[in-house]
Structures are given as C-alpha cells and as structure tokens.
C-alpha cells in the first residue's frame, strides 16, 4: 500500500471518528449531568429494583445516577411531575388517580407531566403474620388488630386499607418502612403486615429467616370481591418464592411501570428503555421480579401516556404505540 493511500485512509478514518463523536455529543447535548429515580422505602422491592437499575444505567450511559428513598408510587408521581426527580417507579392505580387530579398529595391537580418508559412487574397484595398468632385466613384477623400497611402514601397504604374495609376487617392502621414493620411484627408491636411489593419482598425473605411466619392468601370469594371493586387482577404467588410457603398462594396484584418526566431528553429515555428491555438477564440479576420486565408487557399500561423516546424503541422493535398514546 502506498504512503498516499495510507494517508487518505487515515484521514478518512479520523474524519469519520470526528463526525461520529460530534453526532454522539449532539445527541447528548441536552442530557442532564446526573439523574435520580424515585423508589420507596428500604426493605421493599422498589428500592432494590430502582437502585440496581440506576447503577446499571449509570455504568452504561456514562452519567451519574442513583435512587432516592420516597413514599412510593403516589409520591413518585408528584416528584416526577414537578421535576424534582427525573424518573420514578409507580403502579397503575396511583398513576391513574394522579393523572385524573385525585392524588392525595395534590387534590385537584392533574399530575400529567409523567410519561411511561417500560413495564416492570406485578405487585401482589399479601398478608403476613407470625405463625403463633393463630391467624390462618383473613377472616381470622381479630377486631382492632394492628396492621402495618407500609409507608404512608405507598400503593399498599393507598389500597390495602380499602380492601380490608371491603372485606369487613376492623383494624388499627400503622405505617412505616417494610423493614421497620417486619421488626415490629417480630416484637409483637403489630399483629399483621399487609405487604404490596414485587416478589420476593426483601423484608419478607429476611423475616422468615428470623421468625416463623405464615403468608395468608385470599380465598376465591375474597378475590372476586376485591377484583370487582379495585384496579387489581388475580395473581398466584408461587410456592418457591418463600420457604414459608408449602403451596402456591392466591393473591391479587397491580402492574408497575417505570416513568420519566415527559420533558426528559428523548435520546436519553430511548437509550434507557433499550438497555432495560434488550438485557433482561441483567435486570433479573438486579431483582428476580424483573423476569416480567419485558417488552411484551407494555400492553398493561392503559393509563400513562408514553414518553417519545420509549415509544420510539417499542415502535422500532415490532410493538405498536399509536401517536395518540404518546405525550
């Protein structure tokens, strides 16, 4: 090869590299220097999933990212809407109420600067007691029982008390992080923990190592009554989820989605969606609940408008999101 040809090839390569670098810089020109995702309390699935996801995004996108402990889905909708957080995790029930202006944190205000990114998993609603409590079914919960419903404003705290009311359970309401409530159950300070989180719930896994617990299922009549009144669907907790289960346990569940502020850069959200949905093995290594963090489950979002960046990834990969569904 002659020296002149080598020079031309080198020049062309350098030119292409410069053009590529300029294109990448241009694509990232409006990216934030860092980002934060709103999760929930420690000891719950949101915090484990959100923290791991933020680290994964940060490592692959070259920007600093982390998770923030919050009150959960209700507060996350508000924080993302106001721009205090760029990203958050939420469930369909609280999301629907927030978009309609029915959030308990901002009554009358439509929290609509929130857009969907990708499906996460279903949140089962389940009841846990100490084995020596004598409680084997929901109907056994005594009048005035102290029930921990999770952090104030969380999905569990928003919906589980209403479910208990519908089933005729009379209780004293307690709030706290899942880890704290697990400790209170062990110490006899509360009688029941009404969990709503992706499985396996870290606090339950920790609790069953330290105490003899029983996970109470909903019977068929209770499932029928609850699904008719609330935005939940029947769900089965597999027996292998916890060592305390000897058989599959019947519950109800609500879908979770990751969300972003609608004004977050399209290219950033596109890349985050791509990394999440094209690398499910990595997501499952973060938390087992991510086995359902797959593109096909996008159909379970019937409430939140899609972010343009996320919608672009879905439409490029054989899934249809109509323009009317994009913010």
From TrEMBL:
<dbReference type="InterPro" id="IPR011852">
    <property type="entry name" value="TRAP_TAXI"/>
</dbReference>
<keyword id="KW-0732">Signal</keyword>
<dbReference type="Pfam" id="PF16868">
    <property type="entry name" value="NMT1_3"/>
</dbReference>
<feature type="signal peptide">
    <location>
        <begin position="1"/>
        <end position="25"/>
    </location>
</feature>
<protein>
    <recommendedName>
        <fullName>TRAP transporter solute receptor, TAXI family</fullName>
    </recommendedName>
</protein>
């Amino acid at each position: 090869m002659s020296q002149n040809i080598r020079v031309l090839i080198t020049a062309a390569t350098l030119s292409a590299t410069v053009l590529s670098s300029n294109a990448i810089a241009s694509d990232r020109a409006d990216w934030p220097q860092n980002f934060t995702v709103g999760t929930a309390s420690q000891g719950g699935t949101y915090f484990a999933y959100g923290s791991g996801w933020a680290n994964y995004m940060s490592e692959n996108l070259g920007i600093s990212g982390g998770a923030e402990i919050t009150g959960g889905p209700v507060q996350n909708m508000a924080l993302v809407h106001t721009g205090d957080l760029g990203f958050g995790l939420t469930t369909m029930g609280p999301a629907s109420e927030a978009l309609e202006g029915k959030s308990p944190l901002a009554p009358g205000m439509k929290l609509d600067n929130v857009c969907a990114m990708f499906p996460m998993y279903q949140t089962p609603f389940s009841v846990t007691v100490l084995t020596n409590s004598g409680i084997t079914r929901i109907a056994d919960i005594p009048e005035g029982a102290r029930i921990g419903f999770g952090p104030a404003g969380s999905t569990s705290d928003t919906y589980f008390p209403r479910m208990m009311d519908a089933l005729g359970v009379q209780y004293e309401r307690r709030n706290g992080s899942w880890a704290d409530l697990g400790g209170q159950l062990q110490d006899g300070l509360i009688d029941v923990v009404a969990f709503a989180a992706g499985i396996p719930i870290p606090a339950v896994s920790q609790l069953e190592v330290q105490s003899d617990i029983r996970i109470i299922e909903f019977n068929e009549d209770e499932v029928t009554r609850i699904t008719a009144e609330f935005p939940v669907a029947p769900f089965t907790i597999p027996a292998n989820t916890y060592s305390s289960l000897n058989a599959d346990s019947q519950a109800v569940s609500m879908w979770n989605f990751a969300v972003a502020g609608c004004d977050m850069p399209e290219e950033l959200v596109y890349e985050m969606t791509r990394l999440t949905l094209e690398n499910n093995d990595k997501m499952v290594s973060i938390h087992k609940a991510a086995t359902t963090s797959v593109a096909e489950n996008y159909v379970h979002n019937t409430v939140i408008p899609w972010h343009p960046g996320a919608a672009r990834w879905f439409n490029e990969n054989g899934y249809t999101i109509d323009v009317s569904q994009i913010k």
